[in-house]
Amino acid sequence: MARKQSDPEGSLDEKNNKQDEVEHLNNMLAAVLDYLSDEEVEEIDIEYLLNNTEGLRDWWDQYRERNRKKIEEEIKNSLEKLPLEELESIRDKIKEASNLQA
Prior knowledge:
The protein is mainly alpha-helical. The protein contains four helices and no strands.
């Protein structure tokens, strides 16, 4: 049986996966907006949202990890503009964090 030429827009499986992902994101967004629009909610509880919206905590963790490289680059680019005292303070905080993890 001859192989079908590849679809220029992606395979059917990829399209289905993207549709599933969009549907999942829509469901999470709807759950968050339902919570935010609830008149009985007096104070927004992010932990409640993360714990009670299916998949939201995983999505948030993945988003933060993807954003990590951007944050690291921003920090790296700003270091040369900082005075020596602030650089030393940052170094001390890094050492403290490293000691706590060890």
